[in-house]
Amino acid sequence: MSNEQDPTTASTDAPTQHEPGTPEAGTEVQPTTDGTPPATRDPHEHEPTTAGPAEDHPDRDPMRRSRTGAFYAATVGLGLVLILVVIFVAQNTAATTVTFLSFSGSFPVAVVILVAFAAGILFTALGGSLRIMQLRRRAKARERQRKKAAKAEAKAAR
User: What DSSP assignment string belongs to 96-107?
Assistant: First the structure.
C-alpha cells in the first residue's frame, strides 16, 4: 500500500495537490461532446464546433489555418508551376521523333516530356487509389468482425 491519498476519497479539509489534467477544486467540469472524460483530454485540443468566426471563441487563434487559406496557397503554388511550364514549353519547341511499339511520330520535346509527366501522375494516382480501396476494405472487414464479436459477447452474457 502506498502513502499517497486517493484524491476521490480524500477529505475536503486536507490540502491536496492539483494534478495536471484534472479540474481544480471549485471549478465546474464541462461535459465533452465526444464522450471522453475531461481528465484524459488534451487541454490544448479544441472541441469541434460549427459556430461562427473566431471572435465568438476567445480561446481560438484567429490566425489558425483554414481551408480557404490552404486553397489560396495551393492556387498561388499552382500558378507559379503553370508559369514555369509555359516557360518550359516556349523554350523546348524543337521537334523530336518518338517511337512506341509500332507507332511513330514527330512532336515537340516539351509535349513529349509533359505527356510522360502526366502519365506518371496518372499511374501514381491509380496506385494510390488502389491502396486506399484496399485499406478501406480491410477496415470495413475489421469493423464487421468487431461488431460480430461484440454481438456474440452480448449474447453469451445473457
Answer: EEEEETTEEEEE
Alpha-carbon gap, residue 73 to 79, rounded angstroms: 10
Whole-number Å distance between alpha carbons of 113 and 120: 11
pLDDT tens digit at each of 158 positions of the chain: 445 555 554 445 545 555 555 555 555 555 555 565 555 555 555 555 555 555 555 566 666 778 888 888 889 998 998 899 889 888 888 898 988 898 899 998 888 888 888 999 999 999 999 999 999 999 999 999 999 999 999 988 87
Helices (H), 9-108: 67-91
Q: Are 79 and 73 in contact (CB under 8 A)?
A: no
Distance CA 36, CA 26 (A): 21
Pair 147, 139: CB distance under 8 Å:
no
How many Cα atoms within 13 Å fall on the side-chain side of residue 84?
Answer: 7
CA 154 to chain centre: 34
Predicted TM-score (pTM) of the model is 0.44
Q: Residue 60 is inside which H or E element, if any?
A: none
Q: Is 27 exposed, middle or buried (0-12, 13-18, 19+ CB in 10 A)?
A: exposed
